[in-house]
Amino acid sequence: MRASDRVYESLREDILAWRLVPGTVLSEVEQAARLGVSRTPLREGLRRLASDGLAVVGKGRTLVVAELAANDVRHLFELREALETQAARLAARRRRAGVFEDLCARFARADELLTDQDPTRSAYYLLVADLDAAIDAAVDSPYLLRSLQGLRTHVARARRLSRDDTPRLLQAAQEHLLIAQAVLDRDETLAAQATAVHLRRSLATILASLGDRPTSPWPDPPATALGVLT
Known about the structure:
Blueprint: H1 3-16, H2 28-35, H3 39-52, E1 55-57, E2 63-65, H4 70-94, H5 97-108, H6 122-139, H7 142-159, H8 166-184, H9 188-209, H10 223-229
Antiparallel strand pairs: 1-2
């Protein structure tokens, strides 16, 4: 791996995991020393972070970790719902059964992953990433996937705001289980509705963690999905 790629991946992971919090100054001198690289690959890595929207120019033209404001999260989730509900429909139409049978079984045991031995919830988020990857593979739509991939970095960052809310993660695991089961059953409508329910509940949790709340609540999802999830 090139030094600039290593810089990018390391800093990106630190930002997504909230080890580098919004507003942190990404000093070239400090980060080059910490990562054991010269200034040239560091600058290339920082440019890629800025291109992703994870770093922005602060005072004195120094890059800082981008803020994650409530309005940014709302806009992100508006786009997520449009794209991910369609992805769920297509996945239900085109899926391979064995992949989603395995995911259903794993989500049914998701409570075993949320333990004090894994305070960062890395095992749980790996399972969620596996569901995302399975849906992506089943969708088989390069244009839709290209749009989804542009969201994933920011989605991963926002998701981690729920990492200390075990009851919410347990509820989210059940929501993911319903999505996986609907895809397995080829139920396109339920897969899309369950995805919408999950996204709206996740948005409410993240806004609460940011000390905010929706100013214009979205309409409730269809009763069929809500009834299954409650």
